[in-house]
């Protein structure tokens, strides 16, 4: 969900009530509940957050807008991110000079080029950041941690 003040990322899992709120001015990230999302927010589906990047115009949020299932590891779906959107935290570009606008445009073009290349894979239930051998040699406590905690 997008409002002029915040981005709200809502999980689609059954029973999930938490919503990630990202303040577009302070860049502060907090957890809130679905009821806090204003009804006026523009809503659209995303499949994940790739991250943030700071360019000349300010901070941008990079989200995955399309995915394709490419396989499974131990019944865990592995997805390839196939399309992205780059969302500006700033509402306008009026604070930039013509040269800064041009530089920002070039950087966005370079970023779009990198995102168009193959190689962005993810799983919401399996740790792709460690090899199977390394995972087999980790402690039970590590394996019980959420992917976020790892």
Walk me through what this model shows.
- The protein is of the alpha+beta class and 150 residues long.
- The chain folds into two domains: 1-43, no CATH class; 45-144, no CATH class.
- The chain is built from three helices and seven strands.
- The protein has a four-stranded antiparallel beta sheet, with helices on one face. Strands 1-2-3 form a three-stranded antiparallel beta sheet, with no helix packed on it.
- The longest helix is centred in the last third of the chain and has 18 residues, at 98-115.
- It is globular, with a radius of gyration of 18 Å.
The chain-level mean pLDDT equals 92
Q: Could you tell me the radius of gyration in angstroms?
A: 18 Å
Low-confidence stretches: none
Number of strands: 7
What proportion of the residues form beta strands (DSSP E)? 35-45%
Structurally, the number of domains stands at: 2
Basic shape: globular
In order across it, which strands form the biggest sheet? 4-5-6-7
Q: Tell me roughly what share of residues is in helical segments.
A: 10-25%
- The run of helices and strands is EEEEEEHEHH
Structural class: alpha+beta
Q: What does the main sheet amount to?
A: 4 strands, antiparallel
Terminal Cα separation, in Å? 27 Å
- Total of DSSP H or I helical runs spanning 4+ residues: 3
Protein name: Phosphatidylinositol-3-phosphatase SAC1
Organism: Rhynochetos jubatus
InterPro entries: SAC_dom
Domain SAC: 47-140
